[in-house]
Amino acid sequence: MRSGVKTAFVGGVFVLVAGGVGFAGYEMLGGDSDGAGLGGADAAPLNSSGPGEVTAKEVERTSRDFLAAWARGDVDAAGTLTDDPAAAEEALRGFRETGHVENAVVTPGAASGATVPYTVTATISFKGHEKELAYTSELTVVRGQSSGRALVDWRPTVLHPKLNEGATLRTGEAKTIQAVDREGRELTAEKYPSLAPVLDTLRTRYADGAAGEPGVETWIEPADADAPKRTLLTLAKGKTRKLQTTLDADVQAAAEQAVKKYDRASVVAVRPSTGEISAVANSPAGGFNVALEGAQAPGSTMKVVTAAMMLEHGLVGGPTSPVECPKEVTWSGRTFHNNKHFSIANGTFRDSFRRSCNTFFMKALGPLNAKGVEDIALSQTARKYFGLGGVWSIGIGSTDARIPVSRGPETAASYIGQGKVTMNALSIASLSATVKNGAFRQPVIVPREMIKGELTTAQPLPGNMAATLRSVMGAAATDGTAAKAMSAVSGDKGAKTGSAEVDGQSDSNSWFTGYADDLAAGSVVQSGGYGSGPAGKVVAAVLNAR
User: Fold this and answer.
1) How many angstroms separate the Cα of 311 from the Cα of each of 18, 227, 318, 319, 455?
2) pLDDT at residue 46, rounded to an integer
3) Nearest residue to 151 via CA among 95, 207, 81
4) Burial class (CB in 10 A: 0-12, 13-18, 19+), 107
């Protein structure tokens, strides 16, 4: 070794000691530690596409030297081996100082091209408490743009896969909560994996000021102060305080099982009479909370709002009003058609809704242009009666529905849940809840008195509008596109299917919203096709848990 650092070589692994603290064991990739003889003009690039590509020997040398410097705690040396020394040095220093990492063993694996995977086994120590933190990560070697040297492409994930830009690893005292459902049953991420991000946010928002003794933990501190902390390790448990939620453990369990059947699926359940959220589930679980924070075109589930708009403006009467459902219709030069170009002869409003006739909604809405409200009517109705477009404070983070004012063919597309309209499983669960209850109740996941700020309100549905919407949604659930999915669901029920086309996807997203007695649910299954299929099955399973 030429680094001047004393090493002890044991069983193919050498241990570097710096500053009196054994900070690393590093499994050698081979060759001399100073990289002598590696690379050079005759080294073949990994990819022959251009001179900027690094060679296999450069990847070996650079990754080895960086990991060894990191492992022995030489922040400056490790930083200079990256393409962003300042950021790397700050993060590496924080890893030891704020993360309270007293030693770490870094063991690299075989390189795949310019990428080198490795495992890290670190010892975290804080106020007499000590525990091991183990994980895997990877780095990529690139050619420095100005220096031409082979360097580590610096990203926070080099230190830990869950670190993003601006986030830090921290260890310290932390107050904890014990989240319970509406009946006092404990909710844990181990039992309900989809609740992991929900529980993290609840803890971040409501643990401060809680009674009890803090524990000692290691966590990811996000750059955004409002974002939840992600606990990685508990060194010592504190005394927890119970936090009441509106969730229902039985409904949550059913939701978890229902979405697990699909690669990418989300569902939310809401109680119509109160707006209380009973379940939130995603597949895959534990990552980005698509059910509450997603934003996608909801397809024909939007027709619940469009139907309300038609009723509000007198463009259709009751469920048995005669309406037209042609094979296709042209709007501002663009032609729209029904699924498989079906049409309904001598049909009624109920017929067109239960069979999800696209052309009926567009053809019947033509007179809005004469009233001067064609482009703004949908947005106005959505906000006025369904609270959509308002700012929802549900107790944790969520993304609000967006129904913007539109123009031309985009207006027609918005009537059937395409264009620039975006919602998520929470939004469409609330649609059904509003229809069933006859009035919008802004969804919440904790008791309303715990939520800071005002909740969004809306006007109750007029009596005739509420009765007509329940009638046509009931027809869809018993004798329409939602009938197959809802056949096993008993009680007073209604539903609406949807499928939304997405650029770059061969299959549409499957959407479904429905209610049964005092429970409503909304689901989206990515690339699931028709709403009557996957999303409908998810909603039915959740409703049957009531």
Assistant:
1) 76, 41, 8, 10, 27
2) 54
3) 81
4) middle
Cα 257 to Cα 282: distance, rounded to the nearest angstrom:
10
Strands 129-143 and 115-126, how do they pair? antiparallel
DSSP string for residues in 72-104:
TT-HHHHHHTBS-HHHHHHHHHHHHHTTTEEEE
CA distance linking residue 268 with residue 263, whole number of Å: 17
Question: What residues in the chain have per-residue pLDDT under 70?
Answer: 1-51, 208-212, 226, 369-372
What is the DSSP annotation of 128-161? TEEEEEEEEEEEEEEE-TTT--EEE---GGGT-T
Amino acid type, 372 = G
Whose tokens are 């329409």? That residue is: 480
Residue 51's pLDDT is 55
Which pTM was predicted? 0.74
pLDDT recorded at residue 211: 52
d(CA 325, CA 347): 7
User: Look-up: residue for tokens 């919203």?
Assistant: 513
Q: How far is CA 323 from each of CA 38, 249, 360, 470, 540, rounded to the nearest angstrom?
A: 78, 44, 7, 18, 30
Please say whether the beta carbons of 31 and 61 come within 8 A: yes
The encoded tokens of residue 403 equal 């129904």
Q: How many residues does this entry show for the chain?
A: 546
Alpha carbon distance 168, 145 (integer Å): 27
Provide φ and ψ at 493, rounded to 5°: -130, 160
End-to-end CA distance of the chain: 68
Residues whose CB is less than 8 angstroms from the CB of residue 229 and which lie 6 or more positions away in sequence, other chains included: 174, 200, 203, 204, 219, 220, 221, 222
Count CA atoms closer than 13 A to 320's CA, side-chain side: 0
Dist. CA 218–CA 328, nearest whole Å: 60
Residue 494 has a CB neighbour count (10 Å cut-off) of: 25
CA distance 350 to 303: 12
Q: How many contiguous H segments (helices) and E segments (strands) does the chain have?
A: 16, 21
CB 139 within 8 A of CB 66: yes
The answer to whether the CB of 362 falls within 8 A of the CB of 332 is no
The 3 state secondary structure assigned to 311-378 is HHCCCCCCCCCEEEECCEEEECCEEEECHHHCCEEEEEHHHHHHCCCHHHHHHHCCCHHHHCCCCCHH
Give the pLDDT of residue 502. 86
Copy the structure tokens of residue 232: 């990685």
Show the tokens assigned to 123.
Answer: 């010892």
Single-letter code of the amino acid located at 535:
A
CA distance 211 to 226: 22
pLDDT tens for 345-366 read 999 999 999 999 999 988 877 7
The SS3 assignment for 301 reads helix
Phi, psi of 350 (to 5 degrees): -60, -40
List the structure tokens of 156: 């926070």
